[in-house]
Amino acid sequence: MLLVVAEQRSGSLNPVTLETIAAAQTLQQPICVAVVGSHVGDVALELSSCDVSEVLTIDDVALEPYTSDGFVVALSQVVEQERPEMVLFPHTYQTRDFAPALASRLKSSLIADCVGVTSKDGKLLLSRPMFQGKFVAEVVPVGTAPHFVSFQIGAFRADSLKRVTNAVKTREISVSVDPSAIRQRPEDPFKEAKQAVDLTQAERIVAVGRGIKGEEHLPLAQDLAKALGGELAASRPICDSGWLPMDRQVGSSGQTVAPTLYLALGISGAIQHLVGMKGSRTIVAINKDADAPIFEVADYGIVGDLFEIVPALVAALGD
After folding, report:
1. pTM to 2 decimals?
2. Within its chain, how far is the Cα of 206 from the centroid?
């Protein structure tokens, strides 16, 4: 059995949980989804439409707000009761906070930031990038179960998730959490500036690279993004130059995205950038260099001057 740990905050499901369930479904084993927190009934109901065996609720006032201590104590009891073969998480900041301690408590290890999973000769192979995405390692979990695994955001698509028409069973699991054992006293969650954007939720993205030449040419890309009803993003050099804020950066040191359409303007395709956008459903690249690495991952490529092609696209979309 596989156990997927859902992520929620204040009763709202983090959508990346659905990507992790989609990853679990590829393994064709029974799946249970665990929702941890307080008053998590609505989140459990939302997850009950997924094609899983059952949804487990771990509901305790000591688990809200989130603390690493509380989650480690609660989930270690759940794992010991349910005895899953693997425990799967979305690779979020919250997962990075508590999952290593949880795995260590149960005398196991965490295989983090995986981008793929397959079975070969009866063995499970987990793929994860190394050295900022320059290499992809195939990791075989060893030792006794459970094995702990987190999946990179965008590695699996939420829209590939299999669902059911009738809600699956929900079961409550009782755990013992001593509030005095929780050492953290969390403050209010950090709130980003109003102009910050979550590119991971964008359906269409227009991204610019060095080929845009200057900050004064950004309105060209902004017009295309507006015409497509999408978001504007960039490779690292653009953000490092201060032409766009860092929350617009896509890549290994920025956001990992998986939109329906990713349009790359003047982006050469350095591996650090490809790591952040290769999960896009359709990739369109425009670049003057026919040998640019971006064309190796693009579904459609246009070799030409973006300053001629982009205005033509905007005009066509406006017709």
Report:
1. 0.76
2. 19
Give the pLDDT score at 181: 81
Break the chain into its structural domains and give their ranges.
Answer: 2-181, 199-318
Q: Do domains 2-181 and 199-318 have the same CATH topology?
A: yes
Paired tokens of 33: 């989804």
For domain 2-181, give the CATH superfamily.
HUPs (3.40.50.620)
Q: What is the mean pLDDT of each run of 10 residues along the chain (319 residues)?
A: 94 92 93 95 94 95 92 96 95 94 94 87 84 80 92 85 92 91 76 65 93 94 94 94 92 85 94 85 94 93 95 89
| Per-residue pLDDT, 193 | 53
Provide the CATH number for the domain formed by 199-318 in this structure.
3.40.50.1220
In the prediction, which pLDDT does 196 show? 64
